[in-house]
Amino acid sequence: MSGKSRLTYLNGRGRMESIRWLLAAAGVEFEEVYLETKEQYDKLIKDGFLLFQQVPLVEIDGMKMVQTRAIMSYIAGKYNLHGKDLKERALIDMYVEGVSDLMQMILMFPFSPPDAKEKNLESIKERATNRYFPVFEKVLKQHGQDFLVGNKFSWADVMLMEAILAVEEKVPAVLSGFPQLQVFKTKMSNMPTIKKFLQPGSPRKPPPDAHYVETVLKVFK
Fold first, then answer.
1. Are residues 59 and 101 in the same domain?
2. What pTM was estimated for this model as a whole?
3. Do 75 and 99 lie in a common domain?
4. Any residues with CB less than 8 A from the CB of 210 and at least 6 apart, and which?
5. 130 has pLDDT over 50
6. Residue at 37 is within a domain
7. How many domains does the chain have?
8. Which pLDDT band, with edges at 50, 70 and 90, does 2 fall under?
9. By percentage, how much of the chain surpasses pLDDT 70?
10. Which Pfam family would be a valid example here (predicted)?
11. Residue 220: inside a domain, yes or no?
């Protein structure tokens, strides 16, 4: 046993990608097990590894953790990415929840029926530019610091960076009206651990394609 954390999910982004981002940003190496069949998934349930019969599953520090938010909260706390006190933690949690709402739309987009894709893409663009990104633009501008909370790198910064890149894949000019977020993206991209994660060959997964969608439907239905 290598002692590395072990991630069990499909070979694609999904709900595990934010966990990969957070571990990578913290400089933590991990190994992955990919589900490719319904039988593998059913065996995890039968063996009692999935408390609520859902993945992601992350094996870390002797625990078999499920539920994305709980996993990420543990990782953020373990690697000092969750603020210095309760007030900072509350702000970080608020920002993470906001980003998660936007990411949920992006997560579900590949599963949109063909006739709904254009409408759903427009919804992502509208929500990003009118509801979510203006919040973070204002936060960064008001306190004039590099990071969202306490001028220290946190879980919220990692999630915002993931969301920015995910939206840009679909709406390349989405940051055109957000100069603070443009600066934020550049600074985050040059942080050593994140820069490494953005390089080819890293554990970061590509945008979901038809094969990924097909595998998801096969494994979970």
1. no
2. 0.94
3. no
4. none
5. yes
6. yes
7. 2
8. low
9. 99
10. GST_N
11. no
Structure confidence by residue, pLDDT tens digits, 34-64: 999 999 999 999 999 998 999 999 999 999 9
**Given a cut of 50, is residue 1 above it in pLDDT?**
no
Report strand pairing: 63-66 vs 30-34.
Answer: unpaired
Give the count of beta carbons closer than 10 Å to the beta carbon of residue 19: 22
Cβ atoms of residues 22 and 158 within 8 Å: yes
What contacts 129, CB < 8 A, 6 or more positions away? Answer: 174, 177
Collapsed DSSP state (helix, strand, coil) of residue 171: coil
pLDDT digits (tens, 9 = 90+) for 85-97: 999 999 999 999 9
C-alpha closest to that of 168 among 106, 113, 98: 106
- Which residue is it, tokens 């439907």? 217
Q: Is residue 128 part of a domain?
A: yes
Q: Given the structure tokens 């002797």, which residue do they identify?
A: 62
Strand 5-9, strand 57-60: pairing: antiparallel
Average pLDDT over residues 151-174: 95
3-state secondary structure of 91: helix
Are 24 and 96 in a shared domain? no
Cis upstream peptide for 172 (omega within 30°): no
